[in-house]
Structure formats: structure tokens, C-alpha cells
Amino acid sequence: SYSDLLKSTDGFAAENLVGSGSFGSVYKGALSDERTTVAVKVLNLQQQGASKSFLDECNALKNVRHRNLVKIMNVCSTVDRRGNEFKAIVFEFMPNGSLEDWLHHQDRARRLSLAQRLNIAIDVAAALEYLHHHCETPIAHCDLKPSNILLDQDLTARVGDFGLASFLFDGNQPLLSVSLKGSIGYIPPEYGQRGRVTVMGDVYSFGILILEMFTGKRPTDEMFKDDLSIHQFVAVALARGHVIDVVDASMLVDEEMINGGGDDDDDGCGREEEKG
Ligand code: ADP
């Protein structure tokens, strides 16, 4: 039950805080069976009037399941010891944290190999393909970025927070200033023109993700798009046909670069992948 959940997370004690982001703070907790570890995201939306429809939508998202999506276990609206109401979403816990940590935090002793990066890219592509093409109603993620990509025990990537960001666009809040913390560089240009993000916007964000994953540079960095090896890498991934369904190559590289990259195919990524 959720009162058990609250007890086991000690009223959301600071030592259980695993991170915070666009929607609120995330705590590590356990269900009352004491075997299931969960991540509890306490929404900071109550001041912004998180509506019943938001919770209904989160509940509906429980049925959206795929091996590359973080499982939503439940959604609750409850009251803490001080009588404050809060809303929380309970996710399965991802023991290896987010891709953001793996890409950028120096203290992360382990480093991802090229083969592991490619596998993560393929996992994310599979998650997007499922959301866009295999759900009853297509779901646009709208906030794809490394901190929303979580890694499970064996480093399989699972996309989190799917279908939630679109709620924040529906209100009157300006997306750029309020809702999507840390998303600069991932927001598709059409948002500036039309004020909305669609499934095609996810494709753009996926392209940026690929570049960030393989250059190690953030989209806000100066040299982000000037790295030739990444263009070759993307060409290899595309050529394998794994990613072609969801990525529009023209957004990432021009035709000439893909064709021109053919001779130089032997850049190490192919061999790495075969070994893996
Ligand atoms: P953002 O809005 O920046 O994507 P989130 O609020 O989704 O951030 O999550 C903040 C941090 O909490 C993540 O970067 C990750 O480290 C951690 N986190 C989120 N969900 C989970 C989960 N299911 N399991 C483990 N850690 C998680």
C-alpha cells in the first residue's frame, strides 16, 4: 500500500533522494513486500495544479509496456505527515542510474564502450518505435535526453518519463523556461515555430542523443556538430538498419558524408560491435 511505501521511504528522507528533474524529486524506496525496490517520483506539480486528468493519463501509461521502457508501477495522490498533499509516480528502480551519469560524471568509474553505446542507441530506437508505431494511440515522448534514459542491471537502456512532458505543453506555461530543465539542445526547432512537439520532434531529439552519446559532447558545446567520426558512426548504425526506422538521417548528416564515409567504414565501431 502507499502508506507502507511512505513508511519504507521514511517520508522521503534526504538519504533516499536519487535525483531531481523536470517533474520533481526521485526517491529510492521499497514496496511492502520488502523485495521490490522502486523509484518514487514526487511531482512538484501540485502548485501548478496537477489535474485529475494528469493522474488518469499516468494511470493509462501503466499499460504501456516494452523491454526498453521504464515500467510505471503505480500512481498515487496522498498526504504526508504534515498534511501536504502530493502526487507521486512509482517506477521500477533502475540500479545503474541514468545515461547522463554515464556520459558526463567523472566519478563514474566505469566507462561505456562503443559497442555498449551502440546497443543503448538501438534500445532507445526500439522504445521510440514502440511508442510511435505500436501503441493504441501514438505517444510522443517530448523530452528525450540522457537523464531520461535509465540503465538496468545489464545496461539495457530503458526510456523513462514517456508521455508525461506533453502534459506540460498543454497548459499555458512556456516550455523553455519552466518545464524542461536540462533539455536545451534537445528541443526540436519546430517547437520555436509551432509551440508543440510531436513524434517527429522525438526523432530530432534522438539524433541529438546519438551525437551526444558518440562525441561525449553536450549539444550546447561549441564543437558539437563538427566531429567527423560521429558522422561515420551514425552512418554505420543506419547502414545496419537498426535505427533507420526512427531516425531521419538527413537531420544528422548530409548525403555526401554518409556516402563518403563508406570507404572509411573500418573505424573500429564495426569490430567492437561484433565482439559484443
Ligand atoms: P529529468 O527530469 O531530468 O529527466 P527525473 O526527474 O526523471 O529527471 O530523474 C532525476 C534523476 O533520478 C535521474 O537522472 C536518475 O538519476 C534518477 N532516476 C529517475 N528515475 C529513476 C528510476 N526509475 N530508477 C533509478 N533512478 C531514477
UniProtKB/TrEMBL annotation:
GO terms for cellular component: plasma membrane. Residues 12-276 form the Protein kinase domain. It is found in: Cell membrane. The keyword Nucleotide-binding applies. GO terms for molecular function: ATP binding; protein serine/threonine kinase activity; receptor serine/threonine kinase binding. It comes from the Eukaryota. ATP binds at K41. The keyword Transmembrane helix applies. Keywords: ATP-binding, Cell membrane, Glycoprotein, Kinase, Leucine-rich repeat, Membrane, Nucleotide-binding, Phosphoprotein, Receptor, Repeat, Serine/threonine-protein kinase, Signal, Transferase, Transmembrane, Transmembrane helix. Its main location: membrane. Belongs to the protein kinase superfamily. Ser/Thr protein kinase family. Belongs to the RLP family. This is non-specific serine/threonine protein kinase. It comes from Linum tenue. The lineage of its organism: Eukaryota, Viridiplantae, Streptophyta, Embryophyta, Tracheophyta. The chain holds residues 713 to 988 of 1044 of the full protein.
